[in-house]
UniProtKB/TrEMBL annotation:
<keyword id="KW-1133">Transmembrane helix</keyword>
<feature type="transmembrane region" description="Helical">
    <location>
        <begin position="70"/>
        <end position="91"/>
    </location>
</feature>
<feature type="transmembrane region" description="Helical">
    <location>
        <begin position="274"/>
        <end position="291"/>
    </location>
</feature>
<feature type="domain" description="EamA">
    <location>
        <begin position="156"/>
        <end position="290"/>
    </location>
</feature>
<feature type="transmembrane region" description="Helical">
    <location>
        <begin position="216"/>
        <end position="237"/>
    </location>
</feature>
<comment type="similarity">
    <text>Belongs to the EamA transporter family.</text>
</comment>
<feature type="transmembrane region" description="Helical">
    <location>
        <begin position="97"/>
        <end position="120"/>
    </location>
</feature>
<feature type="transmembrane region" description="Helical">
    <location>
        <begin position="154"/>
        <end position="175"/>
    </location>
</feature>
<feature type="transmembrane region" description="Helical">
    <location>
        <begin position="129"/>
        <end position="148"/>
    </location>
</feature>
<dbReference type="InterPro" id="IPR037185">
    <property type="entry name" value="EmrE-like"/>
</dbReference>
<feature type="transmembrane region" description="Helical">
    <location>
        <begin position="187"/>
        <end position="204"/>
    </location>
</feature>
<keyword id="KW-0472">Membrane</keyword>
<keyword id="KW-0812">Transmembrane</keyword>
<feature type="domain" description="EamA">
    <location>
        <begin position="8"/>
        <end position="143"/>
    </location>
</feature>
<feature type="transmembrane region" description="Helical">
    <location>
        <begin position="9"/>
        <end position="29"/>
    </location>
</feature>
<feature type="transmembrane region" description="Helical">
    <location>
        <begin position="41"/>
        <end position="58"/>
    </location>
</feature>
<dbReference type="InterPro" id="IPR000620">
    <property type="entry name" value="EamA_dom"/>
</dbReference>
Length: 308
């Protein structure tokens, strides 16, 4: 029995959330070895670009062509949705705390819901609002364990965290809009390429070469670029072409948070329990609510705008 297109889309976006969550495992090893986040951002984006370029070169070289309009949009996305987004996320972490930065970053689904209504004419339904509320509370509990003391309030840090969430949302909206005119492979190749170039302004790609050679460091760097970057974004953008609304996709992608928390417990022995478990269950519940929702109007709209 064949799965419905939208069901496949949900599965792809769920998969992207899991892969984004796995980023923690590779990043944690690199951080423990003395690298700072900014220093491997450029590698993350460059390897993502290289992986997508090689795959597209083998699959269909015509997808490497892009017009001036597409070039401008992907340049903008590379700058704002990748380079600046990563920079603001890391600066927010430095000025506040990881818990605060992650909580602020996941204001993105709120921005996506508002912008998708304005620009994509997606309908805001009661299940979406309920799922968003449950998801937001779930992310907060998962990250902080329910304690406000885990959050650090610094005006510039909070502002940067909110801006990171906003830029994350812009990526979602622009991807959905561009997918009607360009292949997801074309979009990813150019956004990753431009993102890696712009990241050179604040990232030092030579740092790993100055360290004592450790093959696991390079395996983690490569995995970081291929799995939670190239493959995850490919699954996410492909899921959008299968008729999944941007507002729903942004909430489903928050699976990244419980995956990273569970991974930190299983691999690094970091504490988990109590309210964090409740938060994970709430995030999962919000995803289930969205997948259960059946909106005939958006279903038809989504299917009529597929990019085959």
């Amino acid at each position: 029995m064949k799965l419905a297109r939208k069901t496949k889309g949900y599965m792809m976006i769920t998969g992207s959330g899991f892969l984004w969550g796995s980023m923690f495992f590779y990043a944690q090893y690199l951080l423990d070895r003395g690298l700072v986040s900014q220093d491997f951002v450029v590698w993350k984006l460059f390897i993502g670009f290289l992986a997508m370029f090689i795959y597209t070169w083998i699959k269909d070289r015509t997808l490497l062509k892009i017009d001036k309009r597409g070039l401008v949009f992907t340049m903008f996305m590379g700058l704002v949705c990748h380079a600046v987004y990563n920079l603001f996320t890391f600066l927010s972490m430095e000025k506040t705390s990881i818990s605060t930065a992650v909580s602020l970053l996941y204001t993105a689904p709120m921005f996506v819901m508002i912008m998708s209504r304005i620009f994509l004419k997606e309908i805001i339904t009661s299940p979406k609002i309920i799922a968003l509320i449950i998801c937001t509370i779930g992310v907060f509990l998962t990250v902080t364990g329910g304690s406000l003391r885990a959050l650090s309030f610094n005006l510039s840090g909070v502002t940067l965290g909110l801006l990171a969430g906003f830029f994350y949302a812009i990526m979602n909206i622009l991807s959905k809009s561009l997918l009607n005119q360009y292949s997801q492979l074309t979009i990813l190749i150019y956004t990753f390429g431009f993102g890696s170039l712009f990241s050179l302004a604040f990232s030092n790609p030579l740092v790993p070469f100055k360290m004592e050679f450790d093959p696991i460091i390079w395996l983690c760097i490569i995995a970081l670029g291929v799995l939670p970057t190239a493959l995850s974004y490919l699954l996410f953008t492909t899921g959008l072409t299968y008729g999944v609304e941007s507002s729903k996709a942004s909430i489903i992608a928050t699976l990244e948070v419980p995956v990273s928390v569970l991974g930190s417990y299983l691999l690094f022995g970091q504490e988990i329990g109590g309210w964090k478990i409740v938060g994970i269950i709430m995030v999962l519940l919000s995803v289930v609510l969205l997948q259960k929702e059946n909106n005939p109007i958006t279903e038809v709209r989504g299917l009529s705008s597929q990019n085959h």
